[in-house]
Design a protein that fits this description.
By secondary structure, this protein is of the alpha/beta class. Helices cover 45% and strands 14% of the residues. It has a 5-stranded mixed β-sheet with strand order 7-6-5-8-9, sandwiched between helices. The chain has a two-stranded antiparallel ribbon with strand order 1-2. The protein has a two-stranded parallel sheet with strand order 3-4. A hairpin with a 2-residue loop joins strand 6 and strand 7. The longest helix is centred in the middle third of the chain and has 30 residues. Bound molecules: 5'-O-[(R)-(carboxyoxy)(hydroxy)phosphoryl]adenosine and zinc ion.
Length: 409
């Protein structure tokens, strides 16, 4: 719960790591079912901690994507339902915009403009940021994301999920120099990344050690250190290049991998030499969290860049069916593909090419995400409607003055 004047009032997170650990990674169906269970109790908890009543809330922000469609739909349905019940806007926030702005929740937030390195389990991107909604993609990974490479490398050595913190923990005991890994794509110009080769290099190294009977804890530590050093140095080289390219000395790092201490130390050293500054969020706001989405939603709302859409629902036999959906609006008041990101979004929203070019955020591949097809009414309409019905009921429960909905719900 974020207040534009008082700051972050309360936040809560239920980690599903224990739920997924036994499977070595996220199981989508377990994730979304657990979202249904956890969402409303968490919202109640945050309201109670902040001593806040629903009538004091001006808007609800939710993660519109990219991410796992089932979990996104639960969040979107819940947010839309509560917003409808409380008569306030629901704002779909881009997952990576949430990460990007999270360091602004800290005491000394970065000022615009800056270069941002977004490093999570699904993305590795360098972005030039000139203001809220003014994002230019400078480079991104051609294959695996940095976090994904951490996770896969950890998994092949039999380490726990998520792999990033595990690799970081073992790397602390590693012997430097025993293994040397490549620094992919640093020997040629450009701001693109590639991490899948590094993961394969780690796999080959580990398999060679296993064949030699050297699959010890120390070997795991040594490989972890060599792998982490390679990722950190590669990211540092590209960040330096991006800052030079943009003519800037302010770097923001965000996303799960930005919690990595070795990465922070390396970037701080590089920025220190440049007489610049590096900004990051506290560790719990580097990985996925609700506070960053609330903050990003608030910024969008204040900038007048919100996408309030009226959804009218018809309830039939316990299933809510979308009856009418207003065309979404972008900051320039034009129909825009960005709204495909609204998890209940319609693929029929206009996609004028000229507009896409004006609109940095919409045009960048920050938005070329899986969500637009994943949540299209064609691919997942049935799921969205079934997950929505109980949430409408929940909205009623939350609402002081229940909205007039057909009695069949
Ligand atoms: O942003 P995030 O919570 O979820 C996604 O949006 O993907 O990032 C999760 C990723 C995982 O790949 C995880 O292994 C990685 O961030 N991660 C780390 C560390 N903490 C989390 N990677 C390296 N070092 C860490 N300390
Ligand atoms: Zn994330």
């Amino acid at each position: 719960l974020y207040d534009s004047e008082r700051g972050l009032l309360a936040d809560a997170l239920f980690s599903q790591i224990d739920l997924h650990r036994a499977y070595g990674g996220v199981v989508p169906e377990l994730a979304s079912r657990d979202h249904v269970k956890r969402m409303l109790p968490l919202i109640r908890q945050v309201l109670a901690e902040a001593d806040c009543v629903p009538t004091e809330i001006d808007a609800i922000a939710y993660t519109a994507g990219p991410g796992l469609v089932g979990a996104l739909l639960v969040g979107a349905s819940c947010a839309q339902a509560l917003a409808f019940a409380w008569g306030i806007p629901a704002l779909g926030v881009h997952h990576m915009e949430g990460h990007l702005l999270a360091p602004m929740l800290e005491e000394q937030p970065p000022e615009f403009p800056f270069v941002a390195l977004l490093v999570s389990g699904g993305h590795t991107q360098l972005v030039r940021v000139d203001g809220i909604g003014q994002y230019e993609l400078l480079g991104e990974t051609l294959d695996d994301a940095a976090g994904e490479a951490f996770d896969k490398t950890a998994k092949m050595m039999g380490l726990n999920y998520p792999g990033g913190p595990e690799i970081a923990r073992l790397a602390a005991q590693g012997v430097a120099g025993r293994f040397v890994f490549p620094r992919p794509m640093t020997d040629r110009p450009g701001l693109q990344f590639s991490f899948s080769g590094l993961k394969t290099f780690a796999l080959n190294t580990w398999q060679r050690c296993v064949a030699e009977g050297d699959d010890t804890e120390q070997t795991r530590c040594d490989i972890s250190l060599a792998f982490q050093q390679a990722v950190v140095e590669t990211l540092t080289i590209k960040c330096k290049r991006a800052l030079k390219h943009a003519g800037m000395k302010r770097l923001v790092i965000a996303g799960g991998v930005s919690a990595n201490k070795a990465l922070r130390v390396s970037l701080e050293k590089m920025l220190g030499e440049m007489k610049g500054n590096v900004y990051y969020a506290r560790p719990e706001f580097c990985t996925d969290n609700g506070a960053m989405i609330a903050f990003a939603g608030c910024q969008r709302l204040q900038a007048g860049q919100h996408f309030f859409r009226q959804v009218n629902w018809l309830a039939v036999g316990g299933t809510a069916i979308r009856q009418g959906l207003q065309q979404p609006l972008c900051p320039q008041n034009q129909p825009c593909r960005l709204q495909g990101l609204q998890a209940l979004g319609s693929q029929t929203a206009g996609q004028p090419a000229a507009h896409a070019n004006q609109c940095n955020l919409h045009n960048s591949s920050l938005h070329r995400c899986k969500i637009s097809s994943a949540v299209s009414p064609h691919s997942s309409g049935r799921r969205s409607t079934t997950s929505t019905a109980p949430l409408w009921a929940a909205a009623w429960a939350f609402s002081a003055k229940p909205p007039a909905l057909p009695p069949s719900l």
